[in-house]
C-alpha cells in the first residue's frame, strides 16, 4: 500500500469488437486520495480545494451517499454488499470536480486491511445520461487478478444487460492498471481499461496538467457523445434501458 494523496496519469481506452469495430484512447489523470485525510489542510497542501469552486475540488456530495465521512460511507457499503472485514484504509481514485463540474463514469475505492493488504475493490458506476449509480464489490484474493460476475446495471445503450463482466485488477503501486471486458455467450464484445503511472501531486505537476487539459471532465462528456454518434452512424444496435437486476443502485 502506498499512502498519501497523489495523482495517477496515463491513458483510458475502449475497444468494441462486434458488431462493428470501434476504439479509442485518450490521456487521463485520476487523483488518489486517502479517505481519512479529506480535509482542508491536507488537500490544500496538494493544491486541491475543499468544498469550494476551483480548478480541482473535493466535494463530499460527488461521491458515495451515506455518512458525512467518505471513509465511513465506504466501510458501510462494503459491509452492505457482503464484506466481512472493516477496511482500515480506503483510497478513492477520482477525477475530482474540475471548475465546478464533477463527472466520473467509474470511481474506484481501494480498501486495505490492518495488515495493509489490498482486500476489496468497490466500484461506483454511473451511467449517461440517466445519472444513476450502482456499486459492485470485489473481494480481492491473494495472487488472483481476474474476476467475473454478471452485469447488473445498464451503462451504455450499445451494450445489453445480458452480459458478463471480466475484471483484471492489480494492487496499485507506481503503476495502476484496471480493465474490464464484456462478454455475451462467451464471446468478447467490448473492453475498457486505464493504464496509469503515479506522480507526486505537486504544484508543478498540477500547473503542467491543467495547462494542457484545463477541462478534463468536459472533455470526457464530449467524447462520450461524440463516440456514441459514431456508433450510431456505424449502425451499432441500441438497447433500451431495462430495470437493474437488483436494488444496489
Could you estimate the helical fraction of the residues in percent?
10-25%
Classify the secondary structure makeup into a structural class: alpha+beta
Number of domains: 1
Q: What order do the strands of the largest sheet run in, or round the barrel if closed?
A: 8-7-6-5-2-1-12-11-10-9
**How many helix segments?**
4
Listing every helix as H and every strand as E from the N terminus to the C terminus, the arrangement reads EEHEEHEEEEEEEEHH
How many extended strands?
12
Describe the largest sheet: 10 strands, antiparallel
What amount of the residues lies in strands?
35-45%
What integer value in Å does the Rg equal?
18 Å
Mean pLDDT: 95
Distance separating the two termini: 29 Å
Q: Outline, from the CA principal axes?
A: globular
Q: Ranges with pLDDT <50 over ≥5 residues? A: none
InterPro entries: DUF1365
Protein name: DUF1365 domain-containing protein
Pfam family, one: DUF1365
Blueprint of the fold:
Elements: E1 6-16, E2 22-34, H1 40-44, E3 49-50, E4 57-58, H2 70-80, E5 89-94, E6 106-112, E7 118-126, E8 133-139, E9 146-150, E10 164-169, E11 175-184, E12 187-199, H3 203-212, H4 216-233
Attribute tags:
DUF1365; 249 residues; 12 strands; globular; two-stranded parallel sheet; single chain; 4 helices; alpha+beta
Explain this structure.
This protein is of the alpha+beta class and about 250 residues long. It has one domain (about 10-235). It is built from four helices and twelve strands; from the N terminus they run ββαββαββββββββαα. Strands 8-7-6-5-2-1-12-11-10-9 form a ten-stranded antiparallel sheet, with helices on one face. Strands 3-4 form a two-stranded parallel ribbon. The model has no long low-confidence stretch (mean pLDDT about 95).
